[in-house]
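Annex B. Sample input.
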Amino acid sequence: MKKSSNSESSKLDRKTIERNRRIHMKTLCFKLASLIPSHYIKPTKDMLSQQDQLDIAAAYITHLKERIEKLEGRKKQAARSNSTGNVTKNEMFINSRLPVLELRDMGSTIEVMLITGLNKNFMLYEVISILEEEGAEVVSASFSTVGDKIFHTVHAQVKISRLGVEASRVHQRLRELIASLESWDYLL
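Annex B, continued. Sample output.
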């Protein structure tokens, strides 16, 4: 009789071990399915069988691997383009967004930075006259050309410190100047 009780207990042990394994696998499958973005799964997760969830997870992992490879390829191509001097996608984006205007109000001084393309019909004296009309005195103005971009920098000080210069008004007027120049270039 001892033999039958040992075999029964070993069967119970195997059944318990198998039940625990299934519960553990079900928990792992649930965790895996919860990691997949909901927009990637068309029907709801509750309606899918465990095998469907595993298939979708495998397809999603394959999709992520392909995306990583594509991004790494673009990164390598960008690195090669930078080393050979070719134009990258970022540079093309910046060129399409030209001109770029940045105005820094530092209390008694104002710094205007403007990036334009070589093909833009831009007059630096117009920026200087706007600053002077708004109560600032231009201390220095410079420009430099890098590739097909021109970087303009103007430093100005407030003429009368108690009156100051309204930076938002200067920025608005410079934006209007740029817009008028863009429409003028468009007509040419």
